[in-house]
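Q&A log
Question type: sequence-to-structure
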Amino acid sequence: MNAILLAAGFGTRLRPMTNTIPKCLVPIKGKPLLQIWLERLTAAEIGSFLINTHYLPEQVEQFISASPLKNKAKLFHEPVLLGTAGTLIANKRFLQEEDGMLIHADNYCLADLQAFIKAHKSRPEECLMTMLTFRTDTPSSCGIVELNEQGVVIGFHEKVSNPPGNLANGAVYILSTDLIASLEKETDFSTEVLTKLVGKIYTYTTDMPFLDIGTPEAYKKANSLN
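Response status: OK
Response body:
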């Protein structure tokens, strides 16, 4: 299984830090966020990584060229951002006609990725993908999911004031070959793909730390975790 890491964002909410460094390289406890992802994916026996770039791409290129994992990594520069689904569609061949991971790499995630993969392999037959979920203390700021008794998504509630629960979409997915093959012209994965798959998305919930580090408060929290 290979993984596509979406790492091209501007990180505007983390300015002024991200005025000079791309969000995917901000340090968590002294280690660049992208390095944490690559090390954890390697430990989970993910084969190769494709990382898209756009903002301050030279820094990401320098980081990868100096990484001991550089031979497993491929960079895909987007002069104009293609969108989260657009990047996936443009790089279908990279996934080599196998199930593959799609990761929003601006999250700090210590989930057990091997357990996530195992859950995907045992998903209900009707499910075309598996979503990593986590419990959040701020549900109104997240995309909250509703599940049935089998752990399949039956509803989405995107940043609403009183969502029904605190189980959030972690924006880390394992996609089946059937789903990957079906994508053709979509641009945004959340609004154009997920919303059409209600009833066909299995979930794996982690109890390990998971944080969107998009705000200074969340970034500070990530750096203070034991």
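Response note: Residues 33-43 form the longest helix (11 residues).
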